[in-house]
């Protein structure tokens, strides 16, 4: 709403005479939207039934305001299209970019708040400026839900990163094991002598796949309850060495995040994320 409000305000100054008789379509409703958002935030802090009713009422007003602004922006878009001025074309591009995103945000709000539907993460937009941002559930204490992109790193002996990838959405870690081993075989012409990862990748299928490729030492600590045979298996010296190697990987991830700025991407777009991650491992 804030983006569309200021875009409409700038458009009115650009189109000039073409805006005659269309003053109402340039109205900036961002102040009203901000007031409703504040009411929603205040009501969300309370758990009473009255607060829930108040929050839904504020949402209805916000949705109505958003739909009115959408209608205005569509009209202004038609006015801008014939304009040849460079400023007009830039504003048109802004509207073309943000209108579908606001429509998606409005749709998911209606489904979630009024239809009480659980909207799948893949159908949600959580950032108007970076729509590729994913909802990441890692189930860590105090940080159950995060927003961004998952980055996958393959590391070989010596702490050298042999492959990196920004993953789509919030895929399970378990599914990344086989592509990592396949890439290693393609890159180096042979399987690694040891392959280790954390518990999130542990599964009988992944262990069997590594052994099938010819990996001698497969270090995937089993999750949950372990049989006596499994406990004895994971107490072997080579398994413990593999676990220490994995601990070193976690330390290098920390260095990448804090010393190489991989904790927060300051570039824009999906290409910007890939560039940021790639350069972050270079320096």
Can you characterise this structure?
The protein is mostly helical and 283 residues long. The strands form 3 sheets. Strands 1-2 form a two-stranded antiparallel ribbon. Strands 3-4 form a two-stranded antiparallel sheet. Strand 3 and strand 4 form a beta hairpin. The longest helix has 32 residues. The mean pLDDT is 87.
Q: What's the total number of strands?
A: 6
Helix count, DSSP H or I runs of 4 or more residues: 9
Shape: elongated
The low-confidence parts are: none
Radius of gyration equals 26 Å
Main β-sheet, spatial strand arrangement:
1-2
> In percent terms, what proportion of residues is strand?
5-15%
Structural class: mainly alpha
Largest sheet: 2 strands, antiparallel
């Amino acid at each position: 709403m804030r983006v569309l409000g200021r875009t409409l305000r700038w458009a009115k100054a650009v189109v000039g005479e073409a805006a005659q008789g269309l003053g109402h379509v340039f109205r900036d409703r961002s102040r009203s939207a901000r007031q409703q958002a504040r009411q929603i935030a205040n009501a969300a802090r309370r758990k009473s039934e009255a607060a829930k009713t108040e929050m839904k009422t504020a949402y209805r007003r916000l949705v109505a305001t958003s739909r009115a602004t959408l209608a205005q922006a569509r009209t202004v878009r038609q006015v801008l299209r014939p304009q040849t001025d460079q400023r007009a074309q830039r504003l048109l591009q802004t509207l073309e970019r943000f209108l579908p995103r606001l429509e998606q945000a409005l749709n998911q709000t209606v489904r979630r708040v009024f239809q009480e539907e659980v909207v799948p993460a893949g159908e949600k937009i959580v950032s108007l400026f970076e729509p590729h941002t994913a909802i990441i559930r890692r189930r860590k204490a105090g940080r159950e839900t995060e927003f961004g992109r998952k980055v996958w790193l393959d590391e070989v002996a010596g702490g050298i990163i042999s492959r990196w990838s920004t993953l789509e959405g919030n895929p399970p870690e378990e599914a990344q094991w086989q592509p990592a081993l396949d890439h290693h075989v393609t890159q180096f012409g042979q399987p690694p002598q040891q392959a280790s990862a954390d518990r999130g990748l542990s599964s009988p299928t992944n262990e069997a796949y590594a052994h099938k490729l010819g990996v001698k030492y497969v270090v995937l600590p089993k999750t949950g309850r372990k049989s006596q045979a499994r406990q004895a298996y994971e107490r072997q010296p080579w398994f413990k060495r593999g676990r220490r190697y994995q601990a070193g990987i976690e330390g290098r991830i920390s260095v990448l995040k804090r010393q190489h700025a991989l904790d927060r991407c300051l570039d824009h777009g999906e290409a910007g994320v890939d560039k940021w991650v790639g350069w972050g491992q270079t320096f």
